[in-house]
Every structure is written in C-alpha cells, then in structure tokens.
Write a structure and sequence with these properties.
Strand order of the largest sheet: 1-3-7-6
Structural class: mainly beta
Largest sheet: 4 strands, mixed
Radius of gyration: 23 Å
Distance between the termini: 42 Å
CATH architecture of the largest domain: Sandwich
CATH topology of the largest domain: Immunoglobulin-like
Number of strands: 15
Number of helices: 2
Order of helices and strands: EEEEEHEEHEEEEEEEE
Length: 214
C-alpha cells in the first residue's frame, strides 16, 4: 500500500491520477537523504468535485495553511507548503517538498474532503428519516421556536423530514443531515428559492422535483 519514488530536485512533477484524486488520505514520508541545500521539488495533482478541499498536516500534527506555496517567498518555502486551485476549470493541488525543516516536516498527511470549511467535524450519526413531515414555515419545526433568519447557520438534524414550502432568507450555512424536500404541489405550484452561502448535504438528502420533472 505504499511506494518509494526518486525525483530530481529543482523540477515540477505532475502526478496524474487516472480517475482523478479520490483518496481520503495519503501520507508522504521524506527520505533522510535530503540536504538543506537541495533544491525544492514541486508536486502537482489533479482532482475533481469528489474532493472540494485538502488539508495538509505536518509531523507534529500542525495544520499547514492553504496558499502558503504562493504567499511565501521562494526562499522561505518548506515541505508541505501548498495551494489548492479549486476553480472548476483547474482543480489542482500543488505542494512543495524539501529538506529544510526535517524536524517538523519529515512526514506530511494529506487529507481530501468533500467540503470547503468545517471539514474536521466528527461523523454524523445517521438516523432513519422520520415519517412525520415538518414544514419550513412552521415555527415548531425549529429548536429556537423561530423561523431561520438572514445570516444564520441552519441544520436539518439527522432523521428530520422537512419540506421547504417558502423561500428562505440568505442563510450563511445550511447543513442537511436529515431530509429537505422542495414542496411539489401540482395543484398550487410555487416558485421556491433556497438562499444560502454554503450548502452541505452531509448525512442527509436534498430532494427537488421528481424523476419526470427534476
């Protein structure tokens, strides 16, 4: 489940995954043969929508900040400095390897996530979707007893079965761990809009339309 690869330093290499990047994690161990005076090695990888972001953790389990590869001066780069180009047309992950800080960067843990922020949240305990339907417009649906307001973080909890029957204000984040279904009333059709800066369908379902009218 591992391999050793020799590289010529001072060059860029593209590791192209046939099916694109879809591993949850990969560990990179640097050889003790590195010398502080060796030139940097730049690695580029491709990835798709399956992974939206990548975390890099050093030997001491400290996270390396994204974009350190492009924000630092070239002389200051150390192993693990990276940048994620998440634009739809690019989808690339670049990182640098060198022997300048072997005490802290001799091992790198690369983790791919299906989210952009809050990626370290613990796994959600999935629950069977309740047969009881709740409506977004009903204040009793929400723990606060009030409808969600603009800028709020909102969760459809595990097991919850909520129907979106009104358009929402612009939320900051909506996390769906239960089920959220757009109201689909053939007799009284509605134009409904779900407004949110971030939308995570984590351990749940988002249903809009049906097979014949998606």
């Amino acid at each position: 489940m591992s391999w050793a690869v020799p590289f010529v330093t001072g060059h860029k290499y593209r590791l192209h995954w046939g099916q694109n990047l879809d591993w949850t994690q990969m560990k990179v161990e640097l050889s003790s043969r590195w010398e502080p005076t060796d030139l940097d090695l730049h690695i580029m990888m491709n990835f798709t929508d399956t992974r939206a972001s990548i975390n890099v953790t050093d030997t001491k389990k400290n996270k390396v900040a994204n974009e350190t590869l492009i924000k630092k001066a070239a002389a200051d780069l150390v192993a693990g400095d990276f940048v994620v180009y998440n634009d739809t047309k690019v989808r690339e992950f670049h990182f640098v390897i060198n022997g300048k800080d072997m005490a802290n960067r001799s091992e790198l843990l690369l983790q791919g996530f299906r989210c952009v922020v809050d990626c370290d949240q613990k796994d959600i305990n999935e629950k069977k979707i309740s047969g009881e339907i709740k409506y977004w417009s009903d204040t009793t649906t929400w723990p606060s007893g009030k409808l969600p307001v603009e800028g709020e973080d909102v969760e459809i909890a595990p097991g919850e079965n909520v129907v979106l029957d009104i358009s929402t204000p612009r939320l900051f984040k909506l996390t769906i761990n239960g089920r959220l279904t757009f109201l689909n009333d053939a007799k009284e059709p509605k134009n409904l809009t779900l407004n949110t800066n971030l939308l995570y369908v984590r351990a749940g379902e988002l249903i809009i339309g049906n097979q014949t009218h998606p």
